[in-house]
Known about the structure:
By secondary structure, this protein is of the alpha/beta class. Helices cover about 45% and strands about 10% of the residues. Strand 1, helix 2 and strand 2 (about 50-55) form a beta-alpha-beta unit.
Amino acid sequence: MYSITKYEEKGISVEGVSTMLTGVTIVDFSRHLPGPICTMRLADLGAEVIEVETFPDNDHNRLTDYANGDSSETGGFYLRSHRNHKSISLNLRTEEGKTLAFALAKQADVVVESFRPGVLRHLGLDYDSLWAVHPAVIYCSVTGYGQSGELSQLGGHDLNVQAVSGLLSTIRDSEERPVVADVPITDFAVGLYASEQICAALVQRLRTGRGAYLDVASADLFSSWTGLHAIFAKYNEEKWNHSLRTGRVAYQVFETSDGHYVALAALEEKFWLNFCRAVGREDWEMLHQATITQHPDVYDELKALFLTRTQAEWSELGLEVDCCLTAVEELETWADSSYVTSREITYTLPFLEKKEPLAAKTQHRFQRDRKLPPWYTDHTHELLKRRLNITDEGLRRLQKQGVIPQAP
């Protein structure tokens, strides 16, 4: 594996290795997944992210799955959406806590929040209040349904956004029922989209000196993705139903002889021809656009064919023959897959090293005692001293008043 220094010397940016945003400060008031995903991406690019936690009831206590008991900065939950963040805990129910939060935001290049519209206005931490003293600030609100419209005040999660945007209607099982994905697709995607918008705003500010307010909504993003498919469905319903929902035989997932799966995505004719010739079925060559409903016999033959070899054997064929054939990687073995290892993706994920799982008894103790999760590091005292020049005496006073927690 290349060292970080070697990457930087060559000017190469890879996942988690970059200094492109060094010097940019981000204050993050967001909760749940989309906001932290956004700021984590910016932290990976070199920005300093100060994550404002609610004190005394820290949100991570409620959201963390304690199944991974690794030490600080190696736990799975931390690495999923909080790596490289620095946490500061403030009691925003107190005037002093709100004042400290505002002072931090006033120093920031970027502020990110994910509350329902109006919540931060009530706390005096909204864009208008901050813009009055810091017009160059970039303020990003990440929500499910945006800052306006009839759904803006509704609560919602990833599944709701998939439903509202129309995405969920395009992912169906064999009985035409919408399928619930284990991966929170919209949460991850809108986090990436928000980070893109922030980077664009930083470029604009560099040119013009102006800040920006960014209203980033998950449902907006995914509605734009599904809009084209909605046009297909409305104006060409028969073709839509037969070619996409029912599915082409050349674009399916097949089970292999060892109980695993491979994905064949030979949409272009050249890939389908390469596959047919590689498996000795030239008689299928004219069926490039055939659907399962049109040729159920061919689909059944394909299923039987894939059951004659293991996943590894089909993967080898996919490497040898240009036909868009790849293994469906399982989470248990994902870290050892050829793509992940060849791209050195896991170097930012040290928790994938073989470690003993946290004992069930210890997990229950964590949940019962409501202690901070093992990966969590509080930077409140350090950040207040460095950013706001608060003295040790001042920190003790804030601690006594219940504004901040004790030093770690």
